[in-house]
Amino acid sequence: MPCSSPPLFCDAHLAHRIERAEIDLISAVNHAARERRPGGFLTTVAGGVASFAADGSPYNKVTGLGFDGVPDPDELGLIEQAFAAHGAATQVELAHLADPQVGEMLTTRGYRLESFENILGRSVVGTDAPTSAELDIRSSPDDEFEQWLAVMADSAAHPDTEGVAWHEEFPRAIYEEAMRDGASSSIRRYAALRHGVLAGGAQLRVVDGIAQFAGAATAPAHRRNGIQNALLSTRLADAAAEGCDLAVIVTQPGSKSHQNAQRREFHLLYTRAILVKSPAAA
């Protein structure tokens, strides 16, 4: 079990550091997606990034704004038109610790508040990998990818129903393509076996001392058996071994994932508002 990890105080400096890691993740996946399916775009904007990875992709978004100046209106207009040219809305994920002028600008440009997501974090200290006679948590090799992906996709098709509903839902084919893009962009895969059966999986990405917990899922038949907790513990132990000082995870407010993370001493650092402008308004 981990040593007690005191709650972190999150100021704008720490939020900016986490947002930079998110920019790095989105950029890496975008590059992987465009290598497999040319036609998207990746544009820097006021210290953030605008990404269109592929039609319907969860990586189609603008992130990281509000920590390095306010976007130029003309520059933002070109980005909105670029999304609209693909028939896509412009979705901005804006940290509540960002410059308030960005939120004002987006509101005047016709963006609509759609949802929120929580960024939780904790220090990576004194963490041990779990031991269990029932569960085996390990890295998932390339030759297991299709089986791992099937478990992750099946799990996503039966989402957590606690808390605020996730603001995005994707067809299975889109979800699988996004996971393939992630697999090509230094996101590590973990497998959870319960009594020898592949029952769940998770992802981890390490950048600049931050361990990004990029998603985890448990097959419905194996839920409530400690798999998520074991996946969290293993990834924390790996992050500690690599010298990370911070672990972060994104959840929906009030969700089971939020509860599981909080039990492992992740604490709410800040919230992102999801602001959307329809292509017709671009």
- Relevant CATH superfamily of the largest domain: Gcn5-related N-acetyltransferase (GNAT)
Total of domains: 2
Shape: globular
Secondary-structure content class: alpha+beta
User: Helices and strands, in N-to-C order?
Assistant: HEEEHEHEEHHEEEHEHE
Number of helices: 7
- Spatial strand order of the main sheet: 1-2-3-4-11-5-10-9-8-7-6
**Termini gap:** 51 Å
Shape-level CATH architecture of the largest domain? 3-Layer(aba) Sandwich
Give me the count of strands: 11
Can you identify the CATH class of the largest domain? Answer: Alpha Beta
Mean pLDDT: 91
Structural account:
It is a single chain. The chain is α+β, with helices and mostly antiparallel strands and about 280 residues long. The protein has two domains: about 10-120 and about 270-280, no CATH class; about 125-270, Aminopeptidase (3-Layer(aba) Sandwich), CATH 3.40.630.30. It has seven helices and eleven strands. It has helices at about 10-35, 75-85, 100-110, 145-155, 170-185, 225-240, 255-265, and strands at about 40-45, 50, 60-65, 90-95, 110-125, 135-140, 190-195, 195-205, 210-220, 245-250, 265-275. An eleven-stranded mixed β-sheet has the order 1-2-3-4-11-5-10-9-8-7-6, sandwiched between helices. The longest helix is centred in the N-terminal third of the chain and has 25 residues, at about 10-35. The protein starts with 11 loop residues before the first helix and ends in a 5-residue tail after the last strand.
